[in-house]
Predict the structure.
Amino acid sequence: MTIEEDRPPGAQSFYCDLAWINGEVKSKVLITTAAGRIATVTCGVKQKPEDAAHLVGLTVPGLANVHSHAFHRALRGRTQVEHGTFWTWRERMYAAAAHLDPDSYRALATAVFAEMALAGITAVGEFHYLHHSPKGGLYHDPNAMGHALAGAAAAAGIRITLLDTCYLAGGFDTELNDVQRRFSDGDAARWADRVDALRKAYADSETVRVGAAVHSVRAVPVDQLPPVIAFAAERELPLHVHLSEQRAENDACLARHHKTPTQLLHDHGALGPRTTAVHATHLSQMDIDLLGSSATAVCMCPTTERDLADGIGPAHAVHTAGSPITLGSDSHAVIDLFEEARAVELDERLRTERRGHWRAAELLHAATDAGHAALGWPTAGRLVVGALADFTTIALDTVRLAGVQPAHAAESVVFAASAPDVRHVVVAGRFTVRDHRHELVEDVPGKLAAAIGGIFK
Amino acid sequence: MTIEEDRPPGAQSFYCDLAWINGEVKSKVLITTAAGRIATVTCGVKQKPEDAAHLVGLTVPGLANVHSHAFHRALRGRTQVEHGTFWTWRERMYAAAAHLDPDSYRALATAVFAEMALAGITAVGEFHYLHHSPKGGLYHDPNAMGHALAGAAAAAGIRITLLDTCYLAGGFDTELNDVQRRFSDGDAARWADRVDALRKAYADSETVRVGAAVHSVRAVPVDQLPPVIAFAAERELPLHVHLSEQRAENDACLARHHKTPTQLLHDHGALGPRTTAVHATHLSQMDIDLLGSSATAVCMCPTTERDLADGIGPAHAVHTAGSPITLGSDSHAVIDLFEEARAVELDERLRTERRGHWRAAELLHAATDAGHAALGWPTAGRLVVGALADFTTIALDTVRLAGVQPAHAAESVVFAASAPDVRHVVVAGRFTVRDHRHELVEDVPGKLAAAIGGIFK
């Protein structure tokens, strides 16, 4: 289940024209790798060694896509018809969710993860709740859908953190609906048993991690929260949770529990540095203080938050309070972490009518180092000795980036690059993408079209 | 000065797998052209005629980029350094403005317009105020800088409306600063004389139009407004004006004239269907009524408005009131009219926390038909008999658009396409871009890098 198994050895030495190291752009950087990790990093190497692969452009640590629902990719373009309300979106999303089985899920996710690789993403956090058969029964292997995702990531040549998601209710004091039934294990204890089996299957994997998730305070009744939180704490797993994406969640939580969702999670010990709150759009000052003081990470998904009309979350305030910020493409309206990174700054500019909240280096840190930490890969996301040898090269000689000054390459990439500018992607020291071409998956667009066409046939 | 002159005849017949015609996606559409115009449009043609060029993807009318300052392209990525305030941006913009002469301006604009062509743009409105020599003196030909832009557009194979801009003051009762001196003709009468000479030079051009612009109510003192407005009215020219982009302009105008900028323009007869208000970000209800009831067009530049922290303009309200909406890439933070189009809807979603303000067809209309009308090309922007033969084909088999349903191709393109998805661009019946390659300008990135490097050397 490791990426290395079926792949040729490839280059073990990489010569970067420019590389982003510890927040600065360095020239003529030689990176050597061994056993999937960075062995040496040397700046100012005047001549490219003959056996080194030449990475032309700016090489940055691999990008971490912290929040993904792979199957939402099938909805791209289909939820904007006529006036594309929130209900258009939800109806189509449930139609897709109702259709998938382990084979079609794996095929779709392989193509989606390959699209991510082409966009420079080397690790994905898949927020996974499509667990059981369409009517809610167990598959022969109750983790068949999780294995489909892990297999898809391996096939697409990227790392995955499988954030297995506890999803038990359709809302506060609300039953699951017909589609949601397949999301549920019945209770948190059964969820935990299943996830433990999944963890054991990947205990030795170098490219798959298993983490835990609470879908939201709506979908996990308050008496079922403690077992999920304890499960993650005892095993030191990442714990992710959708938080206050819409005002309606806050209103319902206040009505039911007389607390905000953040307060409720805090009171159950769910916050802390292993935890990532996804969206965190509508927060009170007390919520911001609770997230920041506990060093809970926040995952912003700005292109989804635009698409779903969530609003503009207080990313800068919660970061100032102490929370690392990370990025996710979530519903995959687009898959472009450069767009997500700049949107954190640009949407804050729209809200405040003021420039200059975030430096490009901070946004690139969110897309790399902070993102990997939130996914349980603390030794990835940096170009330093001992780190996982995952990196991404952005071409600076495209029509969009032409004219870049080397000294400002990070600013240019964050504020003007697009996913198609990604030239190479290296995972565990091997090329997953080389010269804009996926090395493991042929015809990614064709595979996407086939997988999506199968769902809506 | 017409695009045809130096070009091979090329195909005169185009077979579109899908084409967007009168707001609907049609299949197997044969378009024939003659003398640069559309001669026939036939839907449902089962087999491609042998001599027809095959346009694989969705063919839409050529995109109109209604508001451009070509030289701002040199700033991309350079104004975000550290915390990138508004003043970082303005300082760098003026450094670029101070440098350019007719030769370097032409070289830069050729590369920028070629970048636009690669992004599917077939007509640009260049809001042009870099008229005179750096110290303010006249060039030997006082329109040398305008000719540089017209020549650049011809070299890049797109149409241009040269919006020659009256710029006389540094603000209300404020002198021009050192850089601004080259923008000014001294008074509106001398501006008009110069622009009349420019008009005569392009009277017979099929690809260059001359229009008029008031830089803003700040930069044209109130006693100089009537001659500019009369000049445009007598000649039935498009008249463009920067309007209420920042609150500071409104405040200064109210302090000086006890009127909003919109009221001031209205009181001088500047509003109406030939007029385009650019940005229109901060409007009162009365402003919205004045713009809408006069059918004044509004040009939204959302990626610039994000970049410069302008805020979110009331595009939908002013459209409902009666104003056509058009799109511009303005400062060229990016050049991607799909991003501009969807941003009109997405930023409105952020502001209102509600989906579904605009239909994709309305946004595509803004990018094509309405945009061309605002630039004085009323017979462009539609795939109908007699229209200018300008069109753009977006590949639907890229990784971003794979899985599109033909029936929803317009929604997919508006909400998920990126500039690199543009496969072909035809202007006046000839390919300007074919298979993602510019047919007239070799190595567009190299030319951009050389031109920009020359400015900041």
